[in-house]
Write a structure and sequence with these properties.
- This protein has 3 helices and 3 strands.
- By secondary structure, it is mainly α.
- The protein has a 3-stranded mixed sheet with strand order 1-3-2.
- The relative contact order is 0.12.
């Protein structure tokens, strides 16, 4: 039976998933189930994040950043600004 260990990039992603789950209110188990690993090219006993999964995460983060920027812009537009009445007290 072969024995494997996770590379640092897998553990970094696990921590990131926990942080994302806390921020978004999503169950981290759902995000953990999506993780995909493959054998490292340097050491077959080490599992690393697959390149396809890394691309998926990058796309997801870019989408979340875009949504955050849109929400931020919307909030600024919806702010109530009291116009200057011309009084200089």
């Amino acid at each position: 039976m072969s024995e494997f260990k996770f590379a640092d990039n897998v553990w970094h992603r696990v921590v990131q998933i926990v942080q994302e789950a806390m921020l978004s209110g999503v169950d981290c188990a759902d995000l953990l189930r999506q993780v995909r690993v493959t054998e490292s090219e340097e050491d077959a006993s080490v599992l690393v994040l697959s390149s396809e999964y890394q691309a998926q995460v990058k796309a997801m983060h870019e989408k979340m950043l875009k949504q955050a920027r849109e929400l931020q812009a919307q909030k600024v537009q919806d702010m109530f600004i009291i116009p200057d009445s011309g009084n200089s007290n």
